[in-house]
Write a structure and sequence with these properties.
Blueprint: H1 12-17, E1 49-57, H2 64-78, E2 82-89, E3 106-111, H3 116-126, E4 129-135, H4 144-154, E5 160-164, E6 171-172, H5 178-195, E7 206-210, H6 211-218, H7 228-238, E8 243-247, E9 249-250, H8 260-279
Parallel strand pairs: 1-2, 1-4, 2-3, 5-8, 6-9
Antiparallel strand pairs: 4-7, 5-7
């Protein structure tokens, strides 16, 4: 599967994209296996396995069982030492109990309903994998892209991998609704106008991070709603974390829980507020506290293809 080459966020291109000077707390950190500044919040107890997949879920008792089984069916033969962490965002159904019978690799943490962005943040800051990814509760993307992103980070080629539906190698095997496609185009255009960067697909629901990058980014995020992806991409560039984009195969897109009538305007307002906070220098401040501390992760080795 082809992909874009890694982006070095310290390049001249990145300097044009980032409109304001990096502050003391956002100096580019070295690769995640190296030591970190004491002024930067650090992550969970220890990196004791290879991969954590975070799945935010709100009232997902119907779709989540198939997603958990799909993850197990893919990850078990791969042989990677993994965990799946479901973040129950205040569900009113049986979502919180769905991992109970799946063994020690699967677990759930619950929070008061606060939004998808808040759920992903909570999961990423509690994840203990050396590589940490998140995807949606309906498992919309073929997991080969997850493996490609994992291998890129494990090799030390980058710290963040974004799934990108707009790459020419990406494909769609799910039906697409015209209205939603148009709304996606409008939102993408607004993001480019307000934030001015070249990552054109911010909203793809598959993103992979080194543990270091996950802690650096998600300890600074503030958006609790569906526009949180935009803030994640922005912070990746602002923190000068090397990233790459990989193509995805969309297999199950529009069972999405996003409602155009309910969420379009709040998402746009979140992006406007992101721009305002960036101009005010609020992203230059120290990150939010993270529950526990960790040492640098142990070195990883890419897994051989099965």
């Amino acid at each position: 599967m082809a992909h874009e080459p890694p982006h070095d966020a310290t390049s001249a291109d990145a300097a044009q994209i980032l409109p304001v000077t990096l502050g003391r707390n956002t100096v580019p950190a070295p690769h995640f296996l190296r030591s970190r500044s004491a002024s930067v919040a650090v992550g969970p107890a220890s990196a004791d396995h290879d991969l954590t997949v975070v799945v935010p879920a709100y009232n997902e008792e119907q779709r989540l069982p198939a997603t958990l089984q799909g993850l197990a069916d893919y990850l078990d033969p791969w042989g990677v030492d993994y965990r799946v962490l479901v973040v129950n965002d205040g569900s009113r159904d049986a979502t919180a109990r769905l991992t109970e019978s799946r063994g020690p690799r699967f677990s759930t943490i619950s929070q008061t309903n606060a939004g998808k962005g808040a759920a992903v943040r909570n999961g990423m800051l509690h994840a203990t994998g050396r590589v940490v990814a998140f995807t949606d509760a309906d498992l919309p993307y073929d997991l080969d892209s997850l493996r490609q992103g994992y291998d890129a980070i494990a090799r030390g080629g980058c710290e963040v991998v974004f799934g990108a539906r707009d790459l020419k190698e990406s494909s769609v095997k799910a039906s697409r609704k015209l209205l939603r496609t148009m709304a996606h185009f409008v939102f993408r255009t607004a993001v480019q106008m307000l934030i001015s960067w070249q990552v054109t697909d911010t909203q793809c629901g598959l993103k992979i991070f080194s543990q270091h990058a996950a802690q650096e980014i998600f300890s600074r995020t503030t958006i609790n709603g569906f526009a949180f992806d935009t803030e994640v991409v922005y912070l990746t560039r602002r923190l000068a974390l090397p990233f790459m984009r990989v193509p995805v195969t969309l297999i199950n897109e529009y069972s999405s829980t996003i409602s155009l009538t309910r969420h379009a305007l709040p998402m746009l307002m979140d992006v406007i507020n992101l721009r305002w906070r960036a101009l005010r220098g609020e992203y230059d401040r120290a990150p939010l506290p993270v529950p526990a501390a960790t040492q640098a992760a142990e070195p990883m080795r890419p897994r051989a293809a099965a």
